[in-house]
Amino acid sequence: MNKGILLVLTGYMMWGSFPLYWALLNHVNPSEVLVHRILWSVPVLFLLVYFKPSWQKNFKSAISSKKELFFLFLTAILITLNWGGYILAVNIGRVVEASMGYFLSPVISMMGGYIFFHERISKLKQWAVFFATIGALYYVFSGDSFPWLGLLIGFTFSFYGVARKAIATSAVPGLYIETLLLLPFIFIFSLWFYANYDLAIFNVNLSTDILLILAGFVTVVPLALFTAGTKLLPMTTVGILFLITPTLQFLVGYVLYDEPVNFNQLLGFIGVWTGLILYSYALIRDKY
Predict the structure, then answer these.
(1) 168 in a domain, yes or no?
(2) How many Cβ atoms sit within 10 Å of the Cβ of residue 240?
(3) What is the SS3 assignment for 146-215?
(4) Residue in 196, 162, 158 with CA at minimum distance from that of residue 82
(5) Is the pTM of this model over 0.85?
(6) Which residues in 159-193 are b (16+ Cβ under 10 Å) and which e?
(7) What pLDDT does 237 receive?
(8) How many structural domains compose the chain?
(9) Cα separations (Å) of 110 from 17, 125, 207, 281?
(10) Taking residues 64-82, what's their average pLDDT?
């Protein structure tokens, strides 16, 4: 197998399997899980950046630019909302809804590219947007409750990608700076949380402690694999392979966790999937 495909595929499959990991921490307050996810990402990212000269140089360049730091602070807020939203979705049994957000993200990102970077959208991609939008709207308005978590996850992930496109800093050193910028807020929030809630870390059992501490490693490794793989592959391939992630998440929620998917929701998904098939075909056609 092509090395680039293997790296990207591994990263996507890890992201797709995230519900299995976060479900092991369902007995912990989602806010505390998010805090540990950010906190323990810092040492992992430090090691990656420290031992790769190009990332180290990129990091030093970014922290010396006020403009880069400002935009990285904005993306830090977006990724925090995305991570927190996904942890909450798993915690309350809405993995299928969260997968809808990630299914929509390529189309949202394409629209973001059109609006902010004036990227051309072919007629076929316009049809992809149409079907995905109709499917998403049908899913939203035909359900018993508003799928705000799925939309939050989809839009924050897409806007994060669009915003990062405007930033010179590459993925891993960028995430390192984002987590560093969040540390003061994490510290203040942790003090408030400790004063009002019982902490799970070091108070429940050893397996909980290990899972919380490894949250950073689990977060960073797929990103590092993805970053390494994208350098070896055309973005067309990377974009199409991404669909593995929400597909796995959907299957985990529907098959393993037995989350209900009614007929109307399925119709909504079919609309989105139709849009994604057209989107993938358009990518292949544009490439060749």
Answers:
(1) yes
(2) 18
(3) CCHHHHHHHHHHHHHHHHHHCCCCCHHHHHHHHHHHHHHHHHHHHHHHHHHCCCCCCCCCHHHHHHHHCH
(4) 158
(5) yes
(6) bbbbbbeebebbbbbbbbbbbbbbeeebeebbeeb
(7) 76
(8) 1
(9) 25, 9, 41, 14
(10) 95
Residue range(s) defining the domain that contains residue 230: 3-119+146-260
Q: Tell me if 160 is assigned to some domain.
A: yes
Helices (H), the chain: 3-16, 18-23, 30-39, 41-50, 53-63, 66-91, 95-117, 123-142, 148-165, 171-196, 206-213, 215-230, 235-241, 244-251, 263-287
| pLDDT higher than threshold 60 for residue 1 | no
Is residue 286 in some structural domain?
no
How wide is the angle at C-alpha 147 spanned by C-alphas 142 and 148, nearest 5°? 140
Q: What SS3 class is residue 258?
A: coil
Read off the pLDDT of residues 11-49 as tens digits, 9 standing for 90 and up.
999 999 999 999 999 999 999 999 999 999 999 999 999
% of the chain beyond a pLDDT of 70: 98
Q: Is residue 138 part of a domain?
A: no
Residue 183 — very low, low, confident or very high, per pLDDT cuts 50/70/90?
very high
